[in-house]
Every structure is written in structure tokens, then in C-alpha cells.
Amino acid sequence: MTDLKILKERESQVHRNDLKAFHMGCDTKSAAGSVSQRACVFCGSRVVLYPVADALHLVHGPIGCAAYTWDIRGALSSGPQLHRLSFSTDLREEQVVFGGEKKLHQCLTDLIDRHAPSAAFVYATCIVGIIGDDVDAVCRTVTREKGIPVIPVHSEGFKGTKKDGYAAACKALFQLVGTGETKDISPVSINILGEFNIGGEAWMIEEYYQKMGVEVVSVLTGDSRVEKIKRSHGAALNVVQCSGAMLQLAEMMEEAYGIPYIRVSYFGLEDTAQALYDVAAHFSDHPEVTEATRALVKAEIGAVHPDLQAFKKVLKGKKAAIYVGGAFKAFSLIKALRYLGMTTVLVGSQTGNSQDYDLLKKMCDKDTIIVDDSNPLELSTYIMEKEADLFIGGVKERPIAFKMGIGFCDHNHERKTPLAGFKGMHNFATEVYTTVRSPVWQFAPRFGGH
User: Fold this and answer.
1) ∠ CA 230-167-410, rounded to 5°
2) What homologous superfamily does CATH list for 189-298?
3) Which terminus of the chain is more exposed, N or C, with fewer CB under 10 A?
4) d(C-alpha 272, C-alpha 278), whole Å
């Protein structure tokens, strides 16, 4: 291991693969002084719920919290644009001292009257948890007064990690599930959970299922509508894309409505094809679905394969570092990079669990650095040690890559380019190729001048 002095509290969360057996320390709060790349509970709830396009999203807290708005998810809508507006109760000192319930009630009624949303989500922030506002009571009152679901989201940032925000969002969504009509839903039907329509990805995936003959009842929550969420309990299968964010909702729906679920990934040729085949296998009593799936996969891979092989000739032997939110995304990235001839020398996630890291250990090459809830110092040190050519992460990782003088590929939720599905793999490969091959790096001091 490099001579980097890792914080003692983080020693169980940084490992070099295969030198010795290890158990990853994870599912813990960030260590003090680590400057974690993680976001807070509030952010976790926002990124899951924001794509519900016809709902009102009101942040109950200081105005600064409203910086977590639509653009941090980049979720596109085919209709309503209400989710793109950021609303806040803008709590000031007076409300902190005397309580903010009255202001919350006034904001909700004014906004509902002005925008006529199908539902409203109210996000409780840190200060609300401290002063003890009864957000639930206010929401119940406004629900009776306005006749729409007004749902509290208990996302006080200090309560835990971003993963706890995912749980708060799932609990909020579950209040809508089961309250709508399910007639006319096909027996060959699914919900897609954990797909947020970044750059229009949900539309691409829905098109695949349409060609397969599978009805998509609801996408949770990309380009979503409240009415579709309400009737989502009528689907025959839940397909969970971002397991870290939405697995809990799938489990709740299975317990309450008996809907089975499968975990999939729509990133990379291999995983996208497997996802479609797994759905077809669930409906094996409809052989026409399987036949249509085979034809679809064959046509889609045939369209992108020649370009990918050309990219592979240039990228073969290049090294990549990966740090993303959910470990499930890391699995797909490792496979996709391997398909392009690249090796992964550093990989980590913000919200992975023990099972995720056991699988990462099996997938990664010997000597690969595996980290949980990392920080900029660790990431930059291992990037230098491993001489990575590319860093794949999110908005908070981009400055690290550019300061190191290496290429960066945005695979987080702020991006505007679709990377899911077969076409998405082509977009990803193109971005990796052009980034690694860019002539700009000859003018940048590699690894920050080291």
C-alpha cells in the first residue's frame, strides 16, 4: 500500500485487492475529518423524488438547502416542467426561534393554488429536525384543504447518509402506490425502479420494452407522473435499475402487493442485453416476448459493435479509476471498460454494502484499490500510484481529475448525455475515446506536476 496516511477510522474502508482477505467497512457514517464525497440525507431524497414532473417540491428549511434542485439530477420530462422550479420556505431566525409551521402552511397553500400540482412533497431539512416542526401535521391539514396528496419527506441531513435519503424517498413514494386504478393493465407489464431519465434514458429503455411487447406501467421516477405512481401496484414485475436508491421500495411493494422484483443494469451491452432477457424470462409463458427480445438485442448490438471494436483498438491497455454513488453502477462500468480493452485500477462507491464489495473483489484484478466513502486525498493519491488515464465519477470528482491532468468522464446524475442501453454504450465509448485521446493533455501537467 502507498505511504498515504489513512485516517485510522477509515482503515477498514480502503483495501488492495487479493493481497489478503478483507471485509469492507461500510454502511457507516462518514469519518470526521475525511471530507467525504458523499451528500447528505436531504440530497439523497431529492435526487430520487425530483423527477416526478407534475408534483410540487417544497424545501422546508433555509434558502441554501434549495441549491439541491432539478439540475442536480438533470431529469427530463416529456410534459410538465414543475419539477424544474425550486421552492423553499426560506426559514429565517424568527421561524427558527418561534417555529416554521405557519410559514410552511402558507407556502404550501399559495403554491398549490398557483401551480395546481398533482401532489406535493415537503422536504424536512436539518434545522426543521432541530426546532421540531410537526411537518406531518401540516401536510395532513393541507391534504384535507386542497384535496391532493401532500407528503412529508423526513430527510433531515444529519440523520445519516445519502442512503438514508433514498429510504426516506421510498417511504414517501409508497404513500402514493396503491391509491390508483389498475384496470386495463396488461399481464405482461413492469415498473422500472431507479431510472431517472438522465438525458432521456428512460425513453430509450421504454422503447426497448415496447418493441418486446412489455407494458411499462410506471417509471420511478424518471419522467414520472403522480397518477402512474398511484397505479404502479398493478404491474406484474418490478425491475430495479439503481438498487441502492430504490430496492427498498421494491421490497415494500413485494410485501404489500406480492409483486416480485429483479435487479438489473442498463449500462453496457452485456448488462443491457441481460436485463431485457431477464424480463423476457419472467414472462416465459409469452414466447413472443422472448422472440422479440432476441431480435431486438441482435439488431441493437449489430448497429454499435463495429464502432466499439474500432475504439477498443485504441483504448486497449488504458487504465481507469471509478468512484460513483452506487456499487451496482461500478459493476457495469468495470464490465464496459473491460469490453473496451481497459483495466480498472481504482474503484469505489459512496453507498455500497458488504455484498456489493464482495462482488467487486471478485470482479477486480489483483492489486486494484477498492474504497468505500472515499475522500479527495485518497482518490488523488491512488490515481497517481496507479497512473490512471481516466477518472469516471460525478461533479465532485471532476476537479480532482482535471487537477491531476487526466481525462474525466461524467457518469453521475448531472450529465445531459444518455449512457444507458445500447446507444448509451456507444455514447460512453465515444466519450471515453475522445477524452483519453484529447490533445489537451499534452499541455496539462500529469498528476498535478508530480
Assistant:
1) 100
2) Nitrogenase molybdenum iron protein domain (3.40.50.1980)
3) C
4) 10
